[in-house]
Design a protein that fits this description.
It is a single-pass type I membrane protein; Single-pass membrane protein. By secondary structure, the protein is of the alpha+beta class. The chain has two domains: 162 residues, Cation-dependent Mannose-6-phosphate Receptor, Chain A (Distorted Sandwich); 64 residues, no CATH class. 32% of the residues lie in helices and 32% in strands. It has five helices and ten strands; from the N terminus they run H-E-E-E-E-E-E-E-E-E-E-H-H-H-H. The longest helix is centred in the C-terminal third of the chain and has 31 residues. The protein is rod-shaped.
Length: 275
């Protein structure tokens, strides 16, 4: 009776496990990722004379909003409540049935977290488990596949194992991020032409005007400084500066007309008189 109660309890807890739920609110920016639900498999075979070794990885992606989606892995040798399961089997010449030598299982009650998120990929991180004397963690990189038109086509592979970290890659067109953006984002990415042109800086005539003002100011200050040195004292410099400013601005109209006359050709020209 106690054994039956324990079995029913374990089964009930397994049914409550979340696993990698593709309906998670945190994945809302990936509108087609829901199509990746189901069991994904990798299998590698090696000749290890006199035996043969097979390494198989199983990844279950779950959709809690779909009643047909299964929150369990029904694979011989894998615990039922696994979300990631790895099996290593060895087949000897004298036996037709392979021997299970290694089992790695990440249970479905481990909640994934986000790792690095780029425009073309998203990393899901699975917390550590204890495997013998080691602690193992896993990362699943979902890569946006831009080539091909078949939405059901995907490439699942075991990438590498570094420092007790198991890394997987799942490449699919369904792993692409939504291209939609808010109007504010569009304004930041593509500013209007008039704003863009203004940000380049001042035009040629603006710089010409600034240069003219600087030359004029230098001329006035220089003239006042020379004249004040003849008189001496700061009071004399101030008076000379004011006098230079007034004198210079009084000559500006004649100077402007003379310059315009040279450019337009309307200035007085000396000519030869006929006898």
């Amino acid at each position: 009776m106690n054994l039956l109660l324990f079995t029913l309890t374990c089964t009930f807890l397994a049914s409550l496990s979340i696993a990698i739920d593709l309906s998670d609110e945190r994945l809302k920016n990936y509108p087609n990722i829901i199509n990746l639900k189901g069991l994904h498999t990798i299998e590698s075979n090696f000749k290890t004379p006199p035996s043969e070794k097979s390494i198989s990885w199983y990844l279950n992606l779950y959709d809690s909003k779909d009643k047909s989606s299964k929150n369990e892995i029904k694979v011989t040798g894998c615990p039922l409540n696994s979300q990631i399961c790895g099996l290593t089997e060895v087949k000897l010449p004298s036996s037709s049935k392979p021997i299970l030598t290694e089992l790695i299982s990440f249970p479905s009650d481990l909640t994934f977290t986000f790792g690095e998120e780029l425009n073309s990929s998203l990393v899901l991180k699975i917390p550590q488990i204890t495997w013998g004397e080691k602690s193992l963690s896993a990362e699943i990189e979902l890569i946006c596949k831009t080539e091909g038109d078949d939405d059901s086509n995907y490439n699942f592979q075991f990438d590498e194992s570094i420092d007790n970290l198991l890394k997987f890659k799942l490449e699919s067109k369904n792993a692409c991020k939504s291209s939609s953006s808010t109007p504010d984002d569009d304004k930041l990415k593509n500013p209007p032409n008039d704003q863009y042109d203004d940000s380049k800086g001042w035009g040629f005539f603006t710089w010409l005007f600034i240069l003219f003002v600087l030359i004029l100011a230098s001329y006035i200050i220089g003239q006042a400084w020379i004249n004040s040195n003849r008189i001496g004292g700061s009071h004399g410099f101030l008076e000379e500066l004011i006098e230079s400013i007034l004198e210079t601005f009084s000559k500006l109209p004649d100077f402007t007309r003379e310059i315009l006359g040279k450019f337009t050709g309307n200035g007085n020209r000396a000519g030869y008189s006929a006898v």
